């Protein structure tokens, strides 16, 4: 039911506590929006979930094997200038489970072609990453995640610098992955995207985390800005909302 759980987690950066007493479970097959102001600790929590940051106290319980955990950072954080084609990038999705040095076999290539077709990038298979638009690059990065057969997927603002048509394709891919049981955590700042995608919301503020129903956030925003759903998220007082 919940392969990823947080137990009284305390995380620090540079000797300073960033988050404490963080509890909760991320349901299998659900999409959780991770929200909070700049510096609230979203990246810190993601690092801990990916096993890259040791908790000061408490623990992350994750039953998903490491090779099935995928992390898609913000596009700007990625160096995509190295000479690699779209197809080559997608095939690297096999590395965590298959190894980087073994080469690929027929079924790998077939699956890679299916994934490119699903993402509408078959015609870009041999194009270098450096020659792609933001949207095309993001489709290719999602392709690598599909190739990896991720069971836990963390994404940081996956729709930033991406065209509207690509947003639609990628949202459908995420929904599809969730339907197949993948646990998805996505950092979002856009209310409309949250409304469309999130089954659950974890709000980080003041060093704590609170689980909020998406509709509670939507009610808050509809009162503030009924005609402007694309406003960036603001953070309501959710002190009435129970922690998980
Ligand atoms: N390597 C580091 N060393 C020291 N402090 C750090 C380090 N990384 C992050 N911090 C601090 O930890 C706090 C949480 O940062 P974090 O990057 O997790 O926030 P965030 O919610 O992801 O912010 P943003 O939305 O700006 O990416 C901030 O106060 C930040 O300055």
Automatic annotation (TrEMBL):
<feature type="domain" description="ABC transporter">
    <location>
        <begin position="4"/>
        <end position="231"/>
    </location>
</feature>
<dbReference type="Pfam" id="PF00005">
    <property type="entry name" value="ABC_tran"/>
</dbReference>
<dbReference type="InterPro" id="IPR003593">
    <property type="entry name" value="AAA+_ATPase"/>
</dbReference>
<dbReference type="InterPro" id="IPR017871">
    <property type="entry name" value="ABC_transporter-like_CS"/>
</dbReference>
<dbReference type="InterPro" id="IPR027417">
    <property type="entry name" value="P-loop_NTPase"/>
</dbReference>
<keyword id="KW-0067">ATP-binding</keyword>
<keyword id="KW-0813">Transport</keyword>
<dbReference type="InterPro" id="IPR003439">
    <property type="entry name" value="ABC_transporter-like_ATP-bd"/>
</dbReference>
<keyword id="KW-0547">Nucleotide-binding</keyword>
<dbReference type="GO" id="GO:0005524">
    <property type="term" value="F:ATP binding"/>
</dbReference>
<dbReference type="GO" id="GO:0016887">
    <property type="term" value="F:ATP hydrolysis activity"/>
</dbReference>
<dbReference type="InterPro" id="IPR050153">
    <property type="entry name" value="Metal_Ion_Import_ABC"/>
</dbReference>
<protein>
    <submittedName>
        <fullName>ATP-binding cassette domain-containing protein</fullName>
    </submittedName>
</protein>
<comment type="similarity">
    <text>Belongs to the ABC transporter superfamily.</text>
</comment>
């Amino acid at each position: 039911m919940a392969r990823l759980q947080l137990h009284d987690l305390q995380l620090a950066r540079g000797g300073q506590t960033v988050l404490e007493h963080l509890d909760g479970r991320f349901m299998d097959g659900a999409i959780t929006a991770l929200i909070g102001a700049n510096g609230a600790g979203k990246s810190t929590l993601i690092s801990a979930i990916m096993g890259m940051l040791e908790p000061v106290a408490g623990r992350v319980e994750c039953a998903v094997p490491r090779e099935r955990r995928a992390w898609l950072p913000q596009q700007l954080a990625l160096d995509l200038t190295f000479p690699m084609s779209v197809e080559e990038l997608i095939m690297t999705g096999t590395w965590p489970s298959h190894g980087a040095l073994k080469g690929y076999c027929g079924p790998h290539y077939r699956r890679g072609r299916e994934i490119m077709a699903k993402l509408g990038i078959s015609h870009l298979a041999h194009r270098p990453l450096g020659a792609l638009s933001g949207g095309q690059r993001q489709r290719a990065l999602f392709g690598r995640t599909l190739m990896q057969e991720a069971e836990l997927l963390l994404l940081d603002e996956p729709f930033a610098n991406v065209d509207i048509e690509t947003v639609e394709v990628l949202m459908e891919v995420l929904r599809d992955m969730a339907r197949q049981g993948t646990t998805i955590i996505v950092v979002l700042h856009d209310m409309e995207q949250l409304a469309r995608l999130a089954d659950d919301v974890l709000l980080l503020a003041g060093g704590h985390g609170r689980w909020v129903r998406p509709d509670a956030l939507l009610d808050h925003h509809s009162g503030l800005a009924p005609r402007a759903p694309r406003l960036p998220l603001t953070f309501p007082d959710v002190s009435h909302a129970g922690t998980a």
